[in-house]
TrEMBL record:
It comes from Pradoshia eiseniae. GO terms for molecular function: isomerase activity. Keywords: Isomerase. InterPro entries: ClpP/crotonase-like_dom_sf, Enoyl-CoA_hyd/isom_CS, Enoyl-CoA_hydra/iso, Enoyl-CoA_hydra_C. This is 2-(1,2-epoxy-1,2-dihydrophenyl)acetyl-CoA isomerase. It holds the Pfam family ECH_1. Belongs to the enoyl-CoA hydratase/isomerase family. It comes from the Bacteria.
Length: 254
């Protein structure tokens, strides 16, 4: 239900149920989790792209797989939890290449990424309320932080489509990309991110996350520990040397 390929230092994960707008099945949840794990374990990979095959990014849970008898709490805990936690704890940068509509848990998946490159024909839909459910998979955790409570409430309670342009105004989109430049620009962005000091990126992500739930003095301890680790990397040594030699650094991700 997904495609996986690597090119240079980038792992490409494609959600691959195009005739169902890449709606999630349990199998797809598991395959995404495994693919992220696989990319994380491969030292040669320094950026991960998640995108959708066909016209959609992801329409959320496949609604033909769940009924009103299904315990949705268990579905979240068992099917989605491991996938979302894998993404949230991933030390490598994850780029959501939002090629088309991202609805329900597909919207949540987009929010869990570090960047959202948004096609001009894409849209976001917090669809849950339209079927009597609440946003899940960390959706409100991310959304309130990204766009503030007022807009998060608006999107979640009204359940209306947000266009790519509106997403950019709200701060949801890293950038909006014209359709005729889509593949080239997404690749160029992914390659750029992959050329950065990968260990520092992982530590920056951890620090941002820690900042939300630690008192300041404890946050400073996390920061000092992160900087200790960053200071031991080859990329730090290269960064300083390149600066002093007035040349561009060649980071290796170690
Ligand atoms: C679909 C779906 C879909 C199945 C389109 N399922 N077939 C929920 C429960 C359990 C626990 C965990 O948490 C969750 C998380 C969730 O994600 S709940 C929210 C689930 N998602 C939705 O409610 C969104 C439903 N879909 C839509 O609102 C629309 O399809 C969107 C806005 C995504 C796209 O609209 P259109 O571009 O007009 O396409 P379409 O509606 O014509 O869909 C094309 C086909 O895909 C169609 O099948 P068909 O056989 O008629 O061609 C749809 O039935 C199918 N499809 N989403 N979630």
């Amino acid at each position: 239900t997904i495609t996986y390929r690597t090119e240079n230092a980038v792992a490409w994960i494609g959600l691959n149920r195009p005739d169902k707008l890449n709606a999630f099945t349990r199998q797809m949840n598991e395959e995404i989790e495994q693919a992220i794990k696989h990319a994380e374990e491969n030292d040669a990979i320094r950026a991960i792209v998640i995108t959708g095959e066909g016209r959609a990014f992801c329409a959320g849970q496949d609604l033909t797989e769940v009924s009103d008898q299904t315990n949705l709490g268990d579905v979240l805990r068992d099917n989605y939890g491991p996938m979302i936690k894998e993404i949230a704890s991933c030390e490598k940068p994850i780029i959501g290449a939002i090629n088309g509509v991202a609805a329900g848990a597909g919207f949540s998946l987009a929010l869990a990424c570090d960047f959202r490159l948004v096609s001009e024909k894409a849209s976001f839909l917090n669809a849950f309320v339209n079927i009597g459910l609440i946003p899940d998979c960390g959706n409100l955790y991310y959304l309130t932080r990204m766009i503030g409570q007022a807009k998060a409430i608006e999107l979640s309670l009204l359940g209306e489509k947000v266009s790519a342009q509106e997403a950019e105004r709200l701060g949801l989109a890293t950038r909006v990309i014209a359709m005729d430049e889509w593949e080239e620009q997404v690749s160029a962005f992914a390659e750029k991110v992959a050329s950065k000091p990968t260990k520092a990126i992982g530590l920056i992500k951890q620090s941002i996350e820690a900042s939300y739930h630690l008192p300041f003095d404890q946050y400073l301890k996390v920061e000092a520990e992160g900087q200790r680790i960053a200071g031991l990397t080859k990329d730090y040594a290269e960064g300083v040397t390149a600066y002093l030699e007035k040349r561009k650094p060649q980071f290796v991700g170690q």
